[in-house]
Amino acid sequence: xxxxxxxxxxxxxxxxxxxxxxxxxxxxxxxxxxxxxxxxxxxxxxxxxxxxxxxxxxxxxxxxxxxxxxxxxxxxxxxxxxxxxxxxxxxxxxxxxxxxxxxxxxxxxxxxxxxxxxxxxxxxxxxxxxxxxxxx
Length: 136
What we know:
By secondary structure, this protein is mostly beta strands. Helices cover 3% and strands 49% of the residues. It contains 1 helix and 10 strands; from the N terminus they run E-E-E-E-E-E-E-E-H-E-E. The chain has a 5-stranded mixed β-barrel with strand order 6-7-8-10-9. Strands 2, 3, 4 and 5 form a 4-stranded antiparallel beta sheet that branches. A hairpin with a 5-residue loop joins strand 9 and strand 10 (126-134). The longest helix is centred in the C-terminal third of the chain and has 4 residues, at 101-104. The chain starts with a strand and ends with a strand.
């Protein structure tokens, strides 16, 4: 039996073949990007020029911390971070494939977006979302 999984939020992701893309919005009037996707531009208030676009899978590590005590559905320790995308969007994200943290993580380092389990829900279903890891 195949394990069950679901995406963290509907409308945030799009399947592209076997891969997932994280979606944002771009306002064609003021050329600003937003996440999560918006129907109305928070900058210029245009509603007719918002387009859903895939966001970059590369980013820069701005800040991070390691979580040692968390809600029961999360395995500890794990790292979370603020990551800046080229679209001038700052995401809050879990980090993966970066232990030992003090040796593999450096501020302003290049990261790449991956998708994977962030937790399990009450029924044991894997919740899938974006994460970042050091660029390979």
